[in-house]
Every structure is written in C-alpha cells, then in structure tokens.
Amino acid sequence: MIHQTELVRYYRIEYSDRSVDQFGRQGDKDLSDRDRPIWVLQGVRGGDNAQARELASRLGWTALLKPLSFNILHNLSNIALGASVVSLHRRAAASLAAPWPDLVIATGKRTAPVARWIKNRSGGRTKIVQLGRPRSPLSAFDLVVATPQYGLPAAENVVETLLPFATAQRPEPGVIERWSAAWSHLAKPRIAMVIGAPRFPLRMGEAEIVRLAEAANGLAAALGGSLMVLGSPRTPKGMVEKIGAGLRAPAILYPWNTAENPYQAALALADRFIVTSDSASMLGETVGTGKPVDIFVLPACPFRFGWEAKTGLAAWLSRQGILQPPRDMSRLVEEIIARGHARPLGSGIATQPMSGRAGDDIVARIKAMFENS
Fold first, then answer.
1. C-alpha span between 235 and 258 (Å, rounded)
2. How far is CA 152 from CA 79, 278, 306, 330, in A?
3. Which of 90, 146, 218, 293 has its CA 20 to 30 A from that of 97?
C-alpha cells in the first residue's frame, strides 16, 4: 500500500546532472523496502510535467519522478505502440524496473504507452491515472482526467475537470523579496500580462498584437495601474517587444529568459492578470490564484475542421483510441467565462474569483480507488 511522506525531496533530482539510471537508484535508495512510491512520468513538455507533479503533490503520497526521453518511434500512433517502451531511449527504458509502483501518473500522448507497459509488467496491480488525451483505448487506464478542450466522450473512468492541475509554485527563498523590490516602483494594481503563442488554429499576428496592447492600455488606464508583460517558452521571439511598443501605460517587459524567469513571482505578487487564450496551463495557474483574470481571446483560423466525440460513432472511435477530436481551446475558455472565473479582456463584466482548488474531487476519487482495493 502507498505510504505518506514529502514529495518535495525528489523534485530537484529531475534537474540534476545524474543519469536516468542513477536517478532511479538514488530515489529507491532513500526509501524503505516496504515503501513503494508512486511514479510520476516526466516527458518533454514542461506544462504536462508540472500537472503530473502537482497531482502527486496533492495526493501527499511518496512520489518518485521518472524523467523519460523518447526516440523517433514516439511519432507512431499509440494504437501501433500499444503497451510498450519501444519509443523510449535505452537508458530511459532501463530506469523502469521492479519493484513496480502502486500508481503511475502520466500526462499526454507520449507517456501513455509507457504507463500501460508498467501496468502490464506489474501483473495489472499498478493503477494508471492519465492526464489529458491518451490517444489510446480509454479502457486501458484506471482514470483519465481531461479538460473541456479535448472533447472526450463520457465513460466511467473518464472525468472532465474545468482546469488542469496547474498551481502556482512557491518560489525559492528570497525570490519573492527580490522581485517585490524590483517592482516596488510600479503603480498598483500591478497587472501581469502572460503571453503565450499562436498555435493552430489560433492566430496571434500583427492585428492581434495591436488589439491586445490597446485593450491592456484601456484596463491599466481605467484602474490607474501598471503592466508587467511576461513571455513564455513558446512565445515567438520579439513578440513581447512588439506588444510593449504599443503600450502607453507604465510597463516593464520580460521576454522569455531561462536564466531569470519572474513568472512564479508574478503569480504571487501581481494584483490581477491578462492572459492569452492559447494555454490551458497558464489559464489554470492564473485563474487558480483567485485574483481577477482577463482573457485575451485569440481568433481562430476560419478554415478548420472541428468535431466532438460526445455521442455516436465519434464517441466509440474515441473510446477505442482510433480517432481523437481536435483540441479546441474555445471550449475551455467559454466554460471558464460561463462560470464567472474570468472575463474576456475589455468586456467589463463582473467575475467571481474561484474559491478553493480545482481538482480536489479528483484527488479524493484517486484515494478512494486504493481504499476500496
């Protein structure tokens, strides 16, 4: 059975210089023989990895990060890959060995075949919680947790939640103090503008940049505040500077910089947010602060094919993992706005900040799976 301890002691191992093999041995070495940690699979996408870690942290059980690296075979469909590790580099595959965990938490398409392989190797004892679209038969997972943009069909083991497991992380000691001092000259309310990137079918060209800057000017002027413009890893080079060129309100610009990234500090210190509608993680983290959020809704290309898998043949195909509906961020954005947790930028409508944490019901359901077994 799973034992309770702190998750945080394993976090930094992922970013160390240890090899994948050493990572696995180092983690197991710290644990007693009777203590089998849950495994948190870590892929290539930072947002996916953060969601898996957040869910593990919420469970409060012993957790071991398993960083995975993939070869070219990951481009095959998950139907073709089945339950296998053939899409992993050799060292990553070698790090997955008995004793098998009680639970695997995985996120996204690439990790799904690996999670299924672990379950098979454990003789079916290991349970899988898959976040997002597994692009595999849904029946292969004990629980699939998806947000509205994926349009997955209803099933006993599928739960749709409003926001992803994306919570602002506590910055390192001294970070809050340092950024608080750096922003002390900015007029309040301090509005953090969190900028994503165009991702088909969403557009963010010159016209959208102009509209965003003008809307941000209007909000800052109405509130008498200032702006902090933050780029993300996917933000095209030069976009933050282009937005800044159109700002008349007091503003400070932060193009993406891996060496000094104020994003987590801004989540803690900003009074409110403007966020582009392309990223579920950014929406989850900003709305999850409970502070006012204005969403800059990016337009979609008119020539696109969209469908849902809620009923009929489409639902059957999706349940088998054969076809998956395209990601449609408008479903998520519309649901957040409908519940009053955010508003479209420039709308002026009142909002009701989110109370409590999204996903606590899912945490309770996962714990119940083990209590019942």
1. 13
2. 17, 19, 13, 15
3. 146
